[in-house]
Amino acid sequence: MDFFCLSELIQPTEDVFASEGDTVTLGCTFETTDPYPNLFWYRQEMGSIHPTDSDFSAYINKTEKRVNLEISSAALTDSAVYYCALQPTVTGNTTTLSTDESPPNDCRGV
User: What gap in Å lies between CA 60 and CA 52, rounded to an integer?
Assistant: First the structure.
């Protein structure tokens, strides 16, 4: 039997600025009744949205209900709008990462 659970994502909407080479952590918190949530990070650049690169790391903390995306060595090519989602779909919550050479709800059925 299928059931649907209630879910909500809370992602900061402020821009994040970093210098090349910095480690950057983007995060969002989630609430869900799903015991096995699927969490994803996407990035939007030049009008297209796609999953984040495999050289990024994502960490889920179920106790704090938080999912972080870590970019270990930020590069200019990492500048984009980032989305977190509880399913393989994009939500309206965004965080923008801008890098510079100088510092300057959903739930799935089970």
Answer: 15
